[in-house]
Design brief:
Length: 345
């Protein structure tokens, strides 16, 4: 199957640069696979389209402030993107990172963060990944909390002298985020407000959390022409016995986001039964995949030729999704992380 078959045209001005002023006032497109109907709604109407006994499965992974500014031994500035922690003691932490720009860096170089913290280059792992050891006067976790920036995707532009808005630290995070570990937000969940959650629960619609830590692969394009040859990077997931029980007794399972979808489809058995477990998944969902557990999907609008767009096409049909995306462009929906969403039933 050709990657080029999963393209669409998107005017650049429709890429959302800021979140909707009020979370639950984002626009939501309702897609009904049975009949191919498309309706324009507001996210706060979500409870109206679900029924008692339905379960919304959300990803409660918390985005860490994973971007740090540093300086090479030459004095040139660079950016550090934290990927995954490899070792931690009272005096230092070792992380797998991406460095930009990494030109002329070598093993044992010292990257200065400020007077209280520095990072030593331990190794180059691959073309894009490095291993750094952070040594700080105090706790590196405290340093990260005070100096780290939200790891916004590259299509969300911020001025260099600012790097982010204060609002990004709050808004690039779901209100139910709990377990730190993601370097990108599970964006379908950004639209939920306390009021919407209360309305769902009042109507007998349960919310069941799982954790999938979104990794570096979310930023990486597919670089093969045949999608069957694409390999996803592994991401850690965890699902509790309580959540598994709720899902197994659900009327319908509505996955909030592609991360929840991939987790559920990774662990469901042939009968769609979920068991409590943790591990890593690199499941790539593309046409031909038979969904075992997910009955509905709430998701944002994704980049063309991305694994996320391909997943959505697999769930609802490529022609139907391309038609809905064309409608979204014509109707001036906002796209990507800070954009609007669609509910596919």
């Amino acid at each position: 199957m050709e990657l080029k078959d999963f393209s669409y045209h998107l005017p650049e001005e429709l890429i959302a640069q800021h979140p909707c002023e009020q979370r639950d006032r984002s626009r939501m497109m309702l897609l009904q696979r049975d009949g191919g109907r498309i309706n324009d709604c507001i996210f706060s109407q979500l409870p109206n389209f679900l029924q008692k006994g339905d379960v919304l499965v959300v990803n409660n992974s918390r985005v860490i402030p994973a971007r740090l500014a540093g300086f090479k031994p030459t004095g040139a500035s660079l950016e550090i993107l934290l990927l995954s922690k490899k070792e931690s003691t009272d005096s230092f932490q070792t992380w797998e990172v991406v460095l930009r720009p990494a030109k002329r860096l070598k093993e044992n170089d010292i990257i200065a963060l400020n007077a209280d913290c520095e990072a030593k280059v331990l190794a180059r792992i691959s073309e894009k990944k490095w291993l750094l050891r952070f040594d700080c006067a105090g706790s590196f976790d405290d340093y990260l909390k005070n100096h780290g920036r939200a790891p916004l995707p590259p299509y969300v532009k911020r001025k260099k002298n600012n790097g982010q808005l204060v609002d990004d630290l709050e808004r690039y995070q779901t209100i139910y985020a709990e377990n730190p570990g993601s370097i990108a937000a599970p964006t379908a969940g950004l639209h939920f407000s306390p009021e919407v959650i209360q309305s769902l629960q009042t109507n007998g619609i349960q919310i069941a959390p799982l954790t999938l830590h979104v990794g570096f692969g979310t930023f990486l394009p597919i670089e093969v022409s045949h999608i069957e040859d694409h390999v996803m990077e592994p991401e850690y997931y965890d699902i509790s016995a309580e959540t598994a029980g709720i899902i197994n007794n659900a009327r319908r399972v509505i996955a909030v986001g592609t991360t929840s979808t991939r987790t559920l489809e990774s662990i469901a058995d042939e009968k769609g039964v979920i068991k409590a477990q943790s591990g890593f998944t690199n499941l790539f969902i593309y046409p031909g995949h038979k969904f075992r557990r997910v009955n509905g999907l709430l998701t944002n609008f994704h980049l063309p030729q991305s694994s996320l767009f391909i997943l959505v096409c697999t769930f609802a049909g490529t022609d139907f999704i391309k038609k809905s995306y064309a409608h979204a462009v014509d109707s001036r929906y906002h796209f990507y992380s800070y954009g609007d969403c669609m509910l596919i039933l």
